[in-house]
Amino acid sequence: MSKLSLLLAAATLVTITSAYQFPPLPQLPTSLLTPEARQLLSTPDIKWSGAEFSWPCGTTKALLKNSGKFIPKNIIATRAQISRDNVFFAMPRYRKGVPATLVKTKLRRGACSVSFEPFPCWSMQEEGKCSALQSVVDIVLDGSDILWALDTGVVGTLEDDPVQYCPPKILAFNVKNGKLAKTITFDGLINKNSRLQYLAVDYGRDGRPFVYVSDAAARAIIVYDVQASRGYRVMLPKAVSEGCGKKDVLYLAMTRKSCGTSTLFFTYLCSKKLFSIQTDYLRDGRTNGKIEDAGTKLEKMVIIGTDNGCAIFFRHEGHPEVYRWDTNTAFQQVNFKPVYRSDSCQLATHAVADYRHSRMRVLESNFPDYIQGKVGCGAVQQLTVMEGCF
């Protein structure tokens, strides 16, 4: 075997060894690779403005555009997950004109444009059809190739007249064949004021899946036992929202240790504190007195993701620099390592693992401009390789 082949073999993605444990994201010694090896391992950033779709036919695009159901400048991707060379994006229906709220595309070397196709199909994107997706705000890909999508059921959140077409739900899809594996509803777990925002997926030591969902309006985390089809709501202490004029965004981030222990970190954007709880307690319903104060935030912190291991990635509100915190260390500034900064001052909304290419990637956009309706022909978006000291 040639030296190049050996280097490539050493850099191959570690196989997932169980249904509930991700492999650690390997670090590639790219400085030791030949130019040929680096070329084979590399994948380009993908960049786009607005959104273009793979339409069934040209007539479909024309009909949707003429009816106001396809308005490219109203489309923005906020969350991403990567499976091999497939990239899945959540495109919330913040405004009208978003034909698909869960899409996929390919990581292709040499591609000069980005085209999206609905996932799993067009019929699952129909507004007003409660068995379909209405507005996906978060997605999680687990170690069993199941993509979990959190759907708020609300369309037009940034419009003057948002519409609650359907109750919130989670749909789980097999990414290999697009088949629907599970539907989760929240009957009895939410109220009319609930605002479900972020999702985490966990597996117990026995392989049973659980999902955790943040309900910002209720100051709560929903815990759902997927196998048993039942859940409960954890009311968070008032200290979690202390100092907040309003309960705005409730971030979640779940970290995993090699021994199988996982911890759920959570914080409000407006809060001065970061909190955590071991997920064993959540799965067993033993939450009283188990929530811990992880530390004090120096500024408002936007959690953008994890490496599916012990690291949490975040940025400060309004700032493009992305930091990595190893949760095995104290939550202190000395342990916040800068790992990425956008050249164009775009803001990251998600940090996601790319296992095939052994990299972390950052989904970023001019999201503040989008919120204010100042994106011209469309929001500028890109999925970029994170290059830093991680």
TrEMBL record:
GO cellular component, one term: extracellular region
A Pfam family of this chain: MRJP
Domain of life: Eukaryota
Signal sequence, start to end: 1-19
Main localization (coarse): secreted
Subcellular location: Secreted
UniProt KW keywords: Secreted, Signal
Gene3D superfamilies: TolB, C-terminal domain
Similarity comment: Belongs to the major royal jelly protein family.
Descriptive protein name: Uncharacterized protein
Species name: Chironomus riparius
